Request: fold
Amino acid sequence: MRALAVEDDPRIAADVAVALQDAGFRAELCHDGEEAWFLGDTEDYDLIVLDLGLPGMDGLSVLKRWRAAGRAMPVLVLTARGTWQERVEGIEAGADDYLPKPFRMEELVARARALVRRAAGRAAAVQEVGALSLDTNRMTVSVRGVPVAATALEYRLLAYLALHCNRVIPPSELLEHLYGDDDAREANALEAVIARLRRKLGPDVIGTRRGFGYFLDGGET
Reply:
């Protein structure tokens, strides 16, 4: 899952990125409003964590422009200004959730996970698709009740497939949501991860529709 953290304080931004990365997201950073608007308008994110006090363009204006352009990704707003009037203004502008500063990273992660699940129509923390079960809070994987050890990359791939199990996911989309700009993003790298997972989970858990992409067996494909 791909997340963008928009925060002008470098220390807070780094802490948020690490927390999201540890929670199974591929986290990217942005520090000003103009760049945030451009990234949110042109890139595909599963979640954006947006501070309101940004240089260049304030976060509320950025959010309003995203929503006016039809961008529907979940947005968790951060702000040092915590009055109820400001929270109402943020929600009316299109925020999906609101977290006043200072905050605990554990709460941010919990809210982030819940937003992503709800956006995919899957409110439960445990995602079950066919024989596969993922606990998105504990970041654990099991098949038919038997625990399976998965690397961080393997877990991210399974979590993305589980959240979107009602459709076949093209390799290009999986690559975009799994790998950072500095990582290998070739199709053969993705095929190697799929092959490892099939050895661990069994050959029939992850399906392939040739020429289209991958899906989890048990979803509506």
Remarks:
- The mean pLDDT is 89.
